[in-house]
Amino acid sequence: MSQIKQLTKAEEEVMQILWDLNNANVAAVIEQLPDPKPAYNTVSTIIRILESKGFVDHTQKGKGYIYFPIVNKSEYSNQSLNKILNGYFQGSFKSMVSFFVKKNDISLNEMEAILNELEQQEDEKNADGLP
Q: Helical H runs in the chain?
């Protein structure tokens, strides 16, 4: 997987909307943003930056454009998480989970659900013959 560029907070907010909507014009993106709504030109500029970074593309519809994501959310999320893992926890998943458990007061039920999900993924890997 090639290196995906990091997004600013504003860019990420617009991408979250595009991931949810799958495709939208600038007005539809603005409609989803919280009040106070940013100016049309501001959102349009952010979307053009996302396009230049390789996150979105567009098709023409009438006189306007419909924008759609070309980087999927899970791919971006995975890379962002790996950046945090390597930057703050020396690549140790155990250290990262331990930090979140201590700082976020994760309940026993939540931890059990996480462990069950990990076991299920491990079972699926084994069923596929992966090491």
A: 9-21, 26-32, 40-52, 73-88, 93-104, 108-127
